[in-house]
Design brief:
Blueprint (H helix, E strand, L loop, with lengths): L9 E4 L2 H8 L7 E4 L4 E5 L6 H5 L4 E5 L6 H12 L3 E5 L5 H10 L4 E5 L2 H6 L4 H24 L6 H14 L4 E2 L4 E4 L19 E7 L1 E3 L2 E2 L2 E8 L4 H20 L6 H14 L11 E3 L6 E5 L12 E4 L2 E4 L3 E4 L2 E6 L2 E4 L10 E2 L2
Parallel strand pairs: 1-5, 3-4, 5-6, 12-20
Antiparallel strand pairs: 1-2, 2-3, 7-10, 8-9, 9-12, 10-11, 13-14, 15-18, 16-17, 18-19
Length: about 350
């Protein structure tokens, strides 16, 4: 990151996750500046106690005065640093704030930068990996609860509520995203909204779900029959997705590109005649956000490195029939990968006929 300060004297952070990553603060109201030798954190009196626990040791805290905005305090902090060039987050800072900042520092050059902190966040520390593992463990346990309790006659919404409650009962802080539950023909929609559709015996059900624990998240998908397995076409589709998923996990290691890892599974699905029905990339990274870089996708030529965490989630979606997606979170290691989810990926985990 130090090379950034060959371009700018100070970087202003407005992205929530980037501020959290740099400062340690878990709350929502703040601004952060980063220079080559200093991290400054700005918030108001509501968080005066919280920051004593949250802030990292190298961070200098500034509390706004009564009636003073965070932006006004930012101006004060920047004036103390006397920058000639100020970097801003191009993907996050509003045009309004950019214009106000330029007006306050007309003699300064503002430089819009992309993915400065995000690039630092890509490779996880062992501490971060432990937090991700804890979130994944909760999701695995939640899935076990679902398998034990799901049954024909329940609606997709009822299953969604069961999944979400299990996450919280097991210690999750908040959901990674709105839980997806898609049954029968709704499985052909990769991001289906749970509905009042009643799950029938023999339906394939896809559940995509995850949870945040201590600011880091999980993301998992399973597709399985409820009741009695009846649809031979969906068994064939599930077997194809499982083969692709297994091959990709076996091939995942430091040094392979996201494009090449995606191609391994895509080739298997295409060879089985379902290429046109695999309509998304294989996976994405996760951490402080559920969708981060790098990606495992066609055209993504970035090479995966040890410490990257990515999902492996090939899928097939056939309108009028249904769909299948299987997803694990994995840690890229030298010479292989560590697959974090322990939940059974097979289609018959909930067959109770």
């Amino acid at each position: 990151m130090q090379e950034i300060f060959n371009q700018v004297d100070v970087l202003v952070l407005t992205n929530h996750e980037n501020k959290k990553y740099v400062s340690g603060f878990k709350g929502s109201e703040s601004l952060v500046t980063v220079s080559s030798n200093n991290v400054s954190f700005i918030t108001d009196g509501r968080y005066k106690t919280a920051i004593k626990k949250d802030l990292k040791p190298n961070v200098t805290a500034y509390i706004t005065e009564t009636g003073q905005s965070h932006f006004d305090k930012l101006v004060d902090v920047l004036k103390e640093q006397s920058p000639k060039t100020i970097g801003v987050e191009a993907n996050n800072m509003t045009v309004g704030m950019y214009n106000k900042l330029q007006a306050k520092f007309p003699e300064c050059k503002l430089v819009a930068l992309e993915n400065v902190i995000e690039a630092q966040r890509e490779i996880k520390t062992e501490e971060e990996l432990d937090l991700i593992k804890a979130a994944v463990a909760i999701t695995d346990q939640a899935f076990s609860h679902v398998v034990e309790n799901i049954k024909p006659g329940m609606t997709e919404i009822e299953v969604r509520n069961m999944v979400d409650q299990a996450h919280f009962n097991l210690g999750g802080d908040r959901l990674s995203f709105e839980t997806i539950v898609a049954s029968g023909p709704n499985g052909a929609l990769p991001h289906a909204n749970p509905s009042n559709r009643v799950i029938e015996s023999g339906d394939m059900v896809t559940i995509d779900f995850g949870v945040f624990k201590d600011e880091y998240c999980s993301d998992m998908t399973r597709s399985f029959f409820v009741g009695e397995a009846k649809n031979e076409k969906l068994i064939e589709i599930h077997n194809t997705v499982h083969q692709a998923w297994s091959a990709q996990i076996a091939a995942a290691k430091a040094g392979i590109s996201g494009h090449d890892l995606d191609k391994i599974g895509r080739d298997i699905i295409e060879a089985a005649g379902y290429g046109e029905y695999f309509i998304h990339g294989t996976g994405h990274s996760l951490g402080l956000e559920v969708h981060e870089n790098p990606r495992v996708a066609k055209g993504w030529n970035q090479v995966l490195q040890a410490g990257h965490v990515v999902t492996i989630e090939p899928g097939i979606y056939v309108e009028g029939i249904g769909g299948v997606r299987i997803e694990n979170d994995i840690i890229i290691r030298e010479g292989g990968c560590e697959s974090l989810n322990t939940s059974n990926p097979n289609y018959d985990v909930a067959i109770k006929g």
